[in-house]
Amino acid sequence: MLFKKEKKVKENLVNTEAVELSKKEKKALKKQEKKEAKKAKKGTKKKWSLKKKLVAIFSSLFVVGVCCFLFLFYGPWAGFRNFWITSAMTTMTHQYLATWFYSDETIQKVLANNSVIEVDEVSNSDAIQFKKYTTTIYRNEYDKDVLTKDPGNDLYKVIKIREAKYEGFLVVVYDPSRIQIATTAYLGKRGEDILTVSNREGAIIAMNAGGFYDPDWNSNGALPHGTVFSKGQVVSDYIDANMGGGFIGFTHENKLILGRMSKQQAIDTGYRDAIEFGPYLIVNGKRSFYKGNGGWGIAPRSAIGQRKDGIVLMLVINGRLAHSIGADMIDLTDIMERYGAYNAANLDGGSSSELVINGQIINTPVAGGRYGLRDMSTFWIVK
After folding, report:
1. In this predicted model, what pLDDT tens digit does every residue of 219-278 receive, in sequence order?
2. CA 287, CA 334: separation in Å to the nearest integer?
3. Nearby residues of 233 by Cβ (< 8 Å), 6 or more positions away
4. What proportions of the chain, in percent to the nearest 5, are helix, strand and coil?
5. Burial 21-55 (b: 16+ CB within 10 A, else e)
6. What is the DSSP annotation of 225-264?
7. φ, ψ for residue 377 (rounded to 5)?
8. Domain residue limits, the chain
9. Are 166 and 364 in contact (CB under 8 A)?
10. Radius of gyration over alpha carbons of the chain, in Å?
11. Sequence-ordered list of residues with C-beta below 8 angstroms from that of 92, at least 6 positions apart, any chain
């Protein structure tokens, strides 16, 4: 009997401990659940805070971007506005970049305050005297670059041009008699790319020349602007009222003559190969005068010039690239003057600026056509 009571007491104790243990476990479990719930809530709060932070950051960046845009385009600093408008309005296909943001009145005012005032003279052919150098005395480092020929190459030399905002190539041609104007084989119908023309003509060097009429902005290069001479003959004669410029060409004496004149005056001048374009950069050793940035903005550029010793300079500047945004008229004039040009003129630029040597594209064109090249109507070639 006593044994049974002791057994029952023991069972009660065990049950009580079990109940007490069960309560402790429940309490611990409840505490753990609260802890995890609190942790989860805290994590959710953190994630939401991060989301808010990201929204705040992007909103701030957007506001800053809009403010910068408004300041650049409409703020008190005219430099950017002048650059933007003149760069856009001197292209054939990107004028909308100016007309979208500015009124016609603003655009015309900017163009009037940024322009080229050319030297009002015709090139003096008597000033060009061909020389064969026998001396090693140079006027400066640029003169040395021009006159020091590459071994085994008496026809031309390529000089790399590098400045802070642009890079390009200056081709020095020692025999101007080998420079001609080539045209698309489909004048009046469509243009051709520079590689096609260069290969057909057997040219050692090819560079874009004049502008062309493009009423539908499709850049097909069918009609060159102005009178075009090739091998002593007038091969095209179309005047685009929207495109100014004067004659740029070589006479039968192989002298580069720049001058604003009529078609008959050009024939009387004795042009062998010539186009009409501009503006002129240097005439008879005198620089053009530039109001503001010159009015042509910053873009890929092409130019041609001749020194007093008869050596020809053909220049192409890369543009619209991260490492080479392009050049303006002042830059072109500086380069041509630096290397001794006595007469020099701007050629069609932008997407037209292209240079081929021995069948290879040397510069970095920014056109979007076949091979990244633009169909054009006229080309300077060296055979």
Report:
1. 578 889 999 999 999 999 987 656 678 999 999 999 999 999 999 999 999 999 999 999
2. 9
3. none
4. 35, 25, 35
5. eeeeeeeeeeeeeeeeeeeeeeeeeeeeeeeeeee
6. SEEEEETTEEEEEE--TT---EEEEEETT--EEEE---HH
7. -110, -35
8. 77-113, 118-382
9. no
10. 36
11. 211, 214, 217, 219, 350, 351
Residue listed under structure tokens 């002298």: 255
Specify the 3-state DSSP secondary structure of 356. Answer: strand
Six token digits for residue 17: 């401990």
Q: What is the C-alpha separation between 320 and 166, in angstroms, rounded?
A: 9
Collapsing DSSP to helix, strand or coil, 114 comes out as coil
Q: What is the pLDDT of residue 17?
A: 47
Q: What is the pLDDT of residues 62-104, one digit of tens each?
A: 777 767 655 566 666 677 777 777 777 776 667 877 788 888 8
The number of C-alpha atoms within 13 Å of 150 and in the hemisphere containing its C-beta is 10
Which ranges in the chain belong to alpha helices (H)?
2-74, 78-89, 96-99, 104-113, 141-147, 194-201, 263-269, 329-338
Cα distances (Å, whole numbers) of residue 255 to 173, 235, 306, 381 = 13, 20, 8, 16
Residue with tokens 């130019």: 303
The residue behind tokens 């001609």 is 180
| Amino acid letter, residue 264 | Q
Segment 157-183 mean pLDDT:
98
Ramachandran angles phi, psi of 52, nearest 5° = -65, -40
User: How many angstroms separate the first and last alpha carbons of the chain?
Assistant: 133
AA letter at 75 = G
Q: Which two tokens stand for residue 38?
A: 């609190």
Cα 316 to Cα 167, 204, 210, 350: the distances in Å are: 9, 16, 14, 10
